């Protein structure tokens, strides 16, 4: 079975939804509270999923699948940068207040309107948590890297 651009975009979307599902289970079942950078990455994952599935649904329009793959790749790179920043800088700060992630999520109103998904409940330092011995931020960084590579593969593949 060869991976077509459509299958790759579906895989990208499913991986993003799975990542957010794991984050929500961690938060609501295991009481691991997210910081602003965690929440920003959730938003990026969900945006990548929506863009990828729109690329699949609107694939009959010329260039839409490629555009979706390009946008998903760019968003994945931005998520990679956010995860890298969280791991290298924000996780060492006592507070995420007034960082880009905090300002963006608060100004968007997402934390107030959908707190179960986008609520900021911890500082970046407090949100440093390991899953199977690896920090969440590193897992996210790796997944965003994989998503960027898959996005490039979808961009270069035929329908």
UniProtKB/TrEMBL annotation:
GO terms for biological process: protein folding. One of its GO terms (cellular component) is plasma membrane. One of its GO terms (molecular function) is protein-disulfide reductase activity. Its main location: membrane. InterPro entries: DiS_bond_form_DsbB/BdbC, DsbB, DsbB-like_sf. The keyword Transmembrane helix applies. Keywords: Cell membrane, Membrane, Transmembrane, Transmembrane helix. It is a multi-pass membrane protein. Gene3D superfamilies: DsbB-like. The chain crosses the membrane at residues 12-30, 42-60, 67-85, 136-156. It is found in: Cell membrane. Pfam families: DsbB. This is Thiol:disulfide interchange protein DsbB.
């Amino acid at each position: 079975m060869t991976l077509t651009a459509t299958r790759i975009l579906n895989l990208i979307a499913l991986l993003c939804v799975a990542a957010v599902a794991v984050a929500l289970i961690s938060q609501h079942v295991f009481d691991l509270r997210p910081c602003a950078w965690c929440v920003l990455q959730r938003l990026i994952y969900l945006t990548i999923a929506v863009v990828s599935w729109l690329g699949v649904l609107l694939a009959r329009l010329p260039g839409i699948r490629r555009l979706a793959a390009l946008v998903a790749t760019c968003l994945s790179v931005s998520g990679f940068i956010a995860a890298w920043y969280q791991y290298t800088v924000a996780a060492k700060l006592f507070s995420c207040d007034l960082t880009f992630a905090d300002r963006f999520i608060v100004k968007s109103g997402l934390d107030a309107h959908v707190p179960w998904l986008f609520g900021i409940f911890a500082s970046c330092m407090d949100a440093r948590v390991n899953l199977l011995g690896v920090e969440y931020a590193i897992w996210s960084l790796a997944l965003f890297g994989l998503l960027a590579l898959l996005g490039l593969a979808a961009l270069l593949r035929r329908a």
